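User: My collaborator and I are trying to settle a disagreement about how two of our proteins should look. Neither of us wants to argue from intuition anymore, so we agreed to look at predicted structures for both before our next call. Could you fold the first one, then the second, and keep them clearly separated?

Assistant: That sounds like a sensible way to settle it. I'll keep them separate. The first protein:
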Amino acid sequence: MRSPRRRVNACNPSPGRALTCQAGGPARTSNEAIEMKRQIKIGRLLAALLLVGSLAAACGTTPATTDPTPTTPEEKEILAKQLGVSVKALEAFEKASVELDKKAPDLNAARGLLEQALKESPNFLEAQYNMGIVSERLERYDEAIAAYNKTQQLDKLNSHSTKVLLAIGRAQSLAGKSEAAVKTFEEALRLDPENIDLLNSVGAAYLKAGKPGEAIEFVKKVLREENENVTALNTLAQIYAAQKNQSMAVYVFKKAARASLNAYSEDEINVEPAVLVLTDKVKLEKVDGAQAGDILNNLGMMYMQMGEMPLAVYNFDAAAKLDPGDVESRLNTGAIYLQYLNYDGARDLFSDALKANPSNCTARLGLSASHFGAGTRKKAIENYDIYLKNCNAEDPSVHYQLVRLHEREQNFDNAIAHCNLYVKHGEPSGDPNDINAAYCKSLESMKNMANQPMQPAGEGGEGGGDELQPMDGGEELQPLDGGEELQPLDDEGMEELDGQGGEELQPLDDGAEGDGMEPLDG
């Protein structure tokens, strides 16, 4: 299971200035813009247990322990019939399974395959459930909730009710519907009161709802049963962070990280968990990379809040190494690079994040800001336009940046359009040098000036065509002294100069006292 995706506000740096976040509100630093990832974890993609459970219900047998994926056409037909779906739907589902089983899956490709399966067989329970998980990973939370609700309706025997309720509550929490999430989790707990995953999820949901007191009660229940439960430790650390107890938050995050890395030796305990990962001191094949990456990402954000940027970057890099498909660690490092004006490094990280999730709005905004800071204006405009089209067409901070970019490119029509949109959706200041209604009008004047053709000499205009005349009514300038030209001095001239002074100039004599220049005091 994965934890939810944290969000960052629209961040746009001006060249030579620190990163600020201006998405419809007061400017904030990048540290304040990042929310820690709650460990209401997302279920593993392609929940095989659901598929096996459906087979058991259809066949009346104990769930199989082997891989149920059919290999021959005959087996596919039998399984499709048992599930009540078409063979085409089953094949599309299998292709999605292959894609999602990759270390860094293409979530959009998997989504497309699941859509094919559901188009063929709308009541395909497993495809609906996995569509919810993929939508969650793509941060389409309302779509995830809809897919899970459909799964719940299709689960006629209620054989997966707790699992599906857990998924619904998780998606509700990620969508910001904290109260609804708490109610859903409590409904699931009534069905399975000792379920550790549910207890963890309720605790995390209460924490996200701003109720750390209620959250800690559920965390304690888990830790009494499993004193090194990684998810519970992560939530406990976040409770300390919410209470501004940074030292305890860091301590518990480190404990959670070591537990997730199975790093318990004396040598390992005295080393930063991120360093263990980056220097290959732990056996990563035995580690749940997604879970350990989440913990290190949270620890990195804690260091960001404390101003410990190198340690923050170590943890984000370690998280990316543990989970190559992770987007958040790249976004966080990219935000730090933007703040410290490393535009090329930020650009590479945001580009990597977009490869993993092309629809990630924060990554798109970060890439735009990186190009803006690096001075690659056309690329910045291109990416800001994509953001406005696919993410938030009214984002005032983006319109603000596009005014500046188009103005520098002399694209005044576009600059004026974005200026008006900024005035409409933003909060312009009264500063005459800032972008406001008056500034938009000045852009109109600049446009008119730029469009006015230049007149060549001698054509049009009052006095045009007259050649420049010499001064004094046309008389040429005359040399001084009645017209005699200045001549270079010859030897005779030099002698004449010598004679006028009375004495010939003598060089200074360092050795003769009284000769040459005298000291000032006489």
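The second protein, kept apart from the first:
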Amino acid sequence: MTASKQAKSSLLRNKVYMRVYGAYTAAAFGDWFDILAIQVLVGYRWQASPLMLALLPIANALPSILLGSVAGVAADRLNKLKLMRICDLFTAALTLFILLAPNMVWLFPILIVRAAISTLNVPAQQALTRSIVREEQLLQATSLNGIVNQGSKIGGPLLGGLALSFLSPQWCIVLNACFRLSSYLLLWSVGKEAVNSVEEGEKTSKSAEKQKESLSIIWKEGWSFIIRSRLLLSSMIFGLIGALAIQMIDFQFTSLFRELAPDQESLLGWMVAASGAGAIIIILIINKMNREVRYGWRLGSGYALIGVSIGGLGLLPQDGSVLAVLILGFVLGIGNGIYMVTFNYCLQKETPPDLIGRVFGIQSTILGVVMIVAPLLGGLTVQAVGPARTFLSFGLVILVIGLFGILFGKLLWPASKTRNGDSASGQVKELV
């Protein structure tokens, strides 16, 4: 326990990590102002159809398909800090351009270009985190990143809903641009020598031939490693199947809430806030646990809880209890938090440092493909049978997927001896 506390304290004293962590926090909070504002603008103000709502995630996913793997290679080979700075500057500028969009036809191209730039940010941030923290601090860093991601779902929608009570969605979009500029300034404050010293250490361990390899060869190495790793391959396939079902309804919450509470634009924000509260609480609990990480149990239970909450939302009557919405949102967050931390930890833990960017880039590409096909099918389904029945049906599907992961966890994720986030104590844990 003492070693665990010392590792955590040491991580918090890591000035480079804390500034990168602060920049990530600013960007994550800003994104949720933006997401909520665009959904309200498109769903409630422009009264977009379910099919048009389905095009929003496609606009964000298309660049991931085209550039995801290339972005992962770039994160491994180029200066990660500079990449993140460039992403923040251009994202802030394009966010302001959204204010000039009069309708969906103008909005989509801006979102696509902005998403193309942001594609570089995720693998760069993950690779940089892996470079600036020690092995025994990896689970702590992964959990802290997860806390920011879910914590922004509490503060972002709450603050965004409050802003929408007095201001227009356009002002929330301006706030996102301000958060991105703050993220850029934090990254700019990181001393060049601090990150360069880390990256120089990584470069010296690579051969000259490795540096001259083509992008296509390096990209293939990432795929080859995933295929050879039973744990990573099972995690990718399991995540892909679950994501297919989840993304069918992920951007149809606006369609559902327009029926449940047509006069309460803020209810969607409250539900997302409750989801964020559940996620951050479970992430804090996971961060304190000293037991072994069981991939099958955690990934499966995460999906199962997500399925229960989504199906429950589909059973709610019009103008029903707000408390029921909040409870289901809270359960949704618990499931999402369990799955997210376990999946990201698996990818980082089971991947060598020099392949982190490529693996996360490939994962981003796979998710991008899902987000092209699934939202369209989901939009068509909602238009055909209605949002309530769609949510109930896919909630049951996700529940079954989660139960499958729990029951067959040992088969999908064979036992592997490794160390978890408390490895500083010297105790070897079993990953199942």
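Some points you might bring to the call about the second protein. The chain has one domain: 2-197+216-431. The longest helix spans residues 15-45.
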